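re: ur msg from earlier - yeah i can do the iron/sulfur cluster complex, just paste it... oh wait u already did. ok heres what im feeding in:
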Amino acid sequence: MYSIKELFKIGNGPSSSHTIGPFVASKEFLKRYKANIDEIKVVLYGSLALTGRGHLTDYIIEKTLLPIPCHIEFDMFTEMEHPNTLEFYGYIQGNKTCYMKVYSIGGGAIKIAGEVEAAKKKIYSLTSYKAIAEYCKKEKISLSEYVDLVEGDSINDYMGLIYETMLKSIENGLSHTGVLPGKLQVKRKANYIFEQNSKDASYDLLRKKTIAYAYAVSEENASGGIIVTAPTCGASGVLPACLRYAIEVNQYSYKECIDALKVAGLIGNLVKENGSISGAEAGCQAEVGTACAMAAAFLAYLDNGHVDIVERASEIALEHHLGLTCDPVLGYVQIPCIERNAVAALRAIDAAKLATYLNSNDSKISFDSVVKTMLNTGHDLRTSYRETAEGGLAKLFE
Ligand code: SF4
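and the outut:
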């Protein structure tokens, strides 16, 4: 598995596979071929073609390739080997000089077709929860100490940046009002929810605030603001909402939160390695389902810390998202995405609680098995339910 720095990325929304991935791919194309081009054509396939406009894919590519003129084609019919494929063609005076095919594989990561990924980047030799849990028990170390062991000291500064950016994205979202970009004319609600309930002293207050925090980040994401992929842009509201919830409820220290965020990253990394974090590949269970599992692990680690409880919490959170489809209306990461982040944040809180109420030793379902099941379920979903905006809720607005 790669470093969790590869999972938590800071970038502009609204979609890690549709904006951050194409941004990274465009940069890579320029790095390799800039000297040999005076014009570029980019062809988008699959989900990138079907929902690219709503996800601002064309905008981000054109902006990144500037000042070189770029023509973008949306090929909605050719089936490629990966659902998020881009082809770059470079020209000088009309003659083709270079070509690069790229897959945007989720979470802002890319893969260049035909190239073997550098093995040295894979720093985790243990790639299942079972193996990691056994190792931690044998060595009598915590999950966050395991992450420290693999990642080295630099992970602390990096996670500090992630912590700050997550909290900042909440503040930014709470401070904005008005309407989100795009044809849907969706009103921002985070500020309204937060203000409406700030004087409410009932039991529900913190849950309402958590909803406002998830909305805040998701609305920032939908409007192209800076967020942290956790594990993706579309699902970026869940973990920050639970982070601020944990700080407000239990006054957890900075160090405690940083350590718990490492554990959340480990869970996201395991899903990325053994399942999928891409809505185009496996539906929303891979994005919001994984975010919920990461947030549940984060809270369970803060609350108890035991490897079995953390496993149970993240397993419960992911299991009850199985089959969740990706059906963004008109291709915008707004409906159902924003509300879904809020629901998942509340679910993460409940999953972490449930894990502590149950006997963690008698679970019949392991985290590793639910990750595999999620991937298999995702592959069984028709493509109309995998970020193509052709099925589910998206059909209501055709
Ligand atoms: S429905 Fe889920 S997976 Fe699809 S774009 Fe929205 S948040 Fe991402």
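cool cool. The longest strand covers residues 95-106. ping me if u need the other ligands too
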